[in-house]
Amino acid sequence: MPDLLLELRSEEIPARMQRKAAGDLRKLVTDALVDAGLTYEGAQEYWTPRRLTLDIRGLTAKSADLKEERKGPRTDAPEKAIEGFLRGAGFTSIDQAKIVADPKKGEFYVAVIEKPGRAAEAIIADVMPGIIRDFPWPKSMRWGKASAKPGSLRWVRPLQSILCTFGPETEEPFVVDFEIDGIRAGNVTYGHRFHAPDAITVRRFDDYADKLMKAHVVLDPARRKEIIATDAKNLAFASGLELVEDEALLEEVSGLVEWPVVLMGSFDEAFLSIPPEVIRLTIKANQKCFVIRPQTGGGLSNRFILVANIEASDGGKEIIHGNGKVVRARLSDALYFWQSDQGDLPDLDTLTASAEKFGLDLKKPLDQRMAKLDHLGVTFHAKLGTQGERVERIRRLARELAPIVGADPDLADRAAVLAKADLTTDAVGEFPELQGLMGRRYAELQGESLAVAAAIEDHYKPLGPTDTVPREPVTIAVALADKIDLLTGFWAIDEKPTGSKDPYALRRAALGVIRLVLENELNFSIDPLNDVQVLRHQIGKTATAEQQLDAILSAAVAGGLHGDQARSLIAQAKPEEPEWLSRVEDHDPSVSDDLRSFIQDRLKVYLRDQGVRHDFVDAVMLSGSCNLFAIVQRVQALGQLLDTEEGKNLLAGTKRAANILAAEEKKGTAIADEVDPALLRTEEEKHLFNAVIQTENEAVQAIQNEDYSAAMRALAALREPIDSFFEHVLVNDEDDSVRANRLALLARIRSATAQVADFSRIVG
Q: What is the pTM of this model?
């Protein structure tokens, strides 16, 4: 079967766009061919900085012939109906239609429409101009004289040539002839712009790829990555060093070169006093170079790996020299930032008030930066106040969380105060990616404890589903406080995620809370924390009421109180600020309820990704509860129960009881408020009643002991009594009082099992 080779060659395509563009080209072309009636065996896309290539194998030579019978009106139908039928069928005369007789409906017209298949090259020539003209580049441009004309071609960079050949392997392929904005498809391409700029005539893909390789173009991006990675490792190893691997940088660099040539440069050893992360980011961001380190470990080497796009006649000496000059200049800036951040700020006298507010020591550089952050009044969000106000909230919440997670409250307080201080440093101003890490470095330099320094760096974590979760208690306290404040703040101002839009990464924050709690096995409910923090956002504080409010809210957290209970405490305290109290009374508790539902939904997504059934989560997700660790334990225990024969039969029995109850409740049948033992006539219903009482007691005790497996085992004991009851007892007895009593017994089963899980939510 024939193969199709397509190449779109242009000036430099940005590396970040290449992979997606090649994938878009494959999808657009193959979809268009399939829609036109063609089939193919396989398609593979390739890309370089100057070309997008598509290789489609086993494409059918023509589309299939089509034959369609279209039923028309009766032969005695009105003239207008027959004319409409002719137009729809594309006929000019009714003689072109067949007449078919139906014993019941009489005779009617039938149009037999035959469409012969089209040659694949004709289809390709038809679809390609539209695909090229409407290609979905994120950014595109017009160029040359044609750019002045309305509707002229737009491309990411000026499109220079189109190659399109089609044909079987055993025959000479031919050029698919089409043209767009003066660029006509052909069988000619060009190699490396410096090493092999002359025209190259090609036939099919294998011939094309081979000739490009000889013309200093490595077409396959995976092969370019392999060359760069292997040569870089070998070059470093030859110097007694090892490459610091960076997959994202490797992907980017492979998109910058068609003929990768790996070289090694160097910089002054004095720059190694800069933190390795700063050196690496400086060299990566500015020169797209890799750093290397000694094979024995430790810090970085003063060498770096660069990738050129040519084989220079001098062996790359000038390229190395030029890159080295730029790297040294960038590192000089980084060294200045590093050193200046460790010095005193020039306006210390203006920072006294902020220092007193946060208990900062203005003799310490990082404390100075925190005071500056507060003094400048840097806005976090127009409705949520400044960064300083946010730090104050995080600080208080971290102190409240500390005893819950086993952290020292004073260390949690100190870490929270300094957590955002590096936002005003020169290093983070130049490289925002280093926030947190630079804070840790500066904290270590000024003698902060290891726990505080680690929390400053890691309190942003986890940043996604694969990021590591902090394990240190102080870090956990600050990380939870940071994320809970973020969630409660945006919920308080009604800036929640909608659809696919989540500009403040609130879904990520909720997942972070979930992972911090579950992976550290923190057995507490975040409900009071959320409620209290929402209150903080919505109430605000005044100087005279600040201590009183925090004492009340801290008591609410310690006692596990919800928002309405915290509001009641505040009202009872009768604070002196009337407008402050009115804001408490105006607080809408549904905000906290909605946030709780959001976190529970994210928990369901998280557990589903872990392979947990969603209906199990629904069954144990008790309303008003957000003890994430307890929910997961319940889910695990429920799964273990339902994996047993007893569990499956118990599920069937409880569902049967629930269905009977629902049906009778819908009909308005009388159901006794309580089970009357005197009305229990059969041994089976007496046995069931006693089993339910015992199960209730055992399940309640097990839940109080947080032994959910024991609670599930208690439920399993109901399996046999329920089965026996339904086998030997008629629920709808003729005696109304007996029937009402038996229905009450079914209700008792439902309430007993509901203490552990809502079996009605389980599918199956």
A: 0.78
